[in-house]
């Protein structure tokens, strides 16, 4: 019997000082958290019931401690700062261990729940700077004496050790490094308080100085997750058209801590503020009808009495039921108006950064024109529709936004060159109906009347700043006026007083561009001249007499006489022939006059002779001809 007791005692004692370890399941909210203050500089002194070490406001020496975020000022072999890698940062408990191992910290922890598993944890750091080389030597291995700390959890009467554990050696480092240690324990029925004790179990001497921060007690329980028929998920997304609906939730526990589980389902609208769902205390929970986004989670406890608070239980991660919001219609960047001769710019809409846009050719359904872009380049005028979407969003899309591209047409302009008669008026026509007009004269009519040559312009406007310009070049037409008419043999040439393009006629009906008329019979004619626009017709009556240019009196029947053709059309006429010296060779009435190149019956020598033709009502006409032998 005695042997059994000893063996039992040794086994129990060994279990009490088993290896440290963290909670492998879920953790509840801290019921105790000592962070030693988040301010700067030295903190407040701990009570005498907590430590027997002496409080100082500088780097502590053996058997002393301080509360501070500033170290390594007096003791230069220490690190000169505390890294901000703990939970709270800020100040920490700095302990210069006594030469004699012993307890340096004792704290009563209240507010625990009975029959519940807890995790105790704390951050520790060896504050000795190995790079200082102060503690180097054969008798100081590993860069100074390492820290070793024992944690013990006692019942509130300080008569029963619930759990304990020793840290491994915490050796010095070249830069400050925090390490977190933990152990788990379980309270007994009716037990709501424990006592935490920390002991220095390292050797005295150079080193073995440490910092402690974030001493935390929290509930430790099974790792719980929420599952649905689809498996374990953190959230589901539901289209608005599928609401309202009910969902079956299941609590999945790894059973790593609790020997039995009690459940309490909770609900939250924001994922932070939770409330118990009355009567939802089973492993499975069928939700009420869900109409809007909501969060669910399940609390687990090993004892039903511990479900009432967050410090005595653990909770699963939040399971979100997200009712997807249909993307709002894109915000239009504005309708676009361009001229026909301009490149069509992009149509634009704006959507939130997590959305994109598809473009269609109709308000509903229709043909997909562009995908995944807030910008669309149309090739023709029309109304285009932008639809917002989110990647992976398979719900019915929201309303589309209409964006219009209007291409204002422009007429096919052709400039005109016109002519105006002196003193006349002409009408200039824009030539295209259904537009607005802006003339260089200031008129806004479709046409204008002008009476002077020059360059005129009209802007044919389809929209503000969208127009085409037509140019009219109006030239003055020179007056048509006959300066004279000349007969050259059988030909007649009409001469113009001014240069230009004219038409000529001898009968006022048939006009030609050439001023020379060929093979015209002799007689009295009227010469006509007009310009290209028929502004004015000028006339001149003239006598056309066909005068031979030579005679050859040889009785062959050809050109034997100087005789005029057409002189018979005139009431009276007289012809005179002179030699080169002005001596009269022959004379007589024109109608019956003919000369054979003789004088007093004798042949005159070959050569040039001159004639003078006088016709009543016309200027005398003179010229020369040749006598050939």
Automatic annotation (TrEMBL):
InterPro entries from the UniProt entry: Ig_7, T9SS_type_B
Lineage: Bacteria, Pseudomonadati, Bacteroidota, Flavobacteriia, Flavobacteriales
Descriptive protein name: T9SS type B sorting domain-containing protein
Recorded superkingdom: Bacteria
Domain Ig-like stretches: 327-408
Organism encoding this protein: Christiangramia aestuarii
A Pfam family that the UniProt record links to this protein: CHU_C
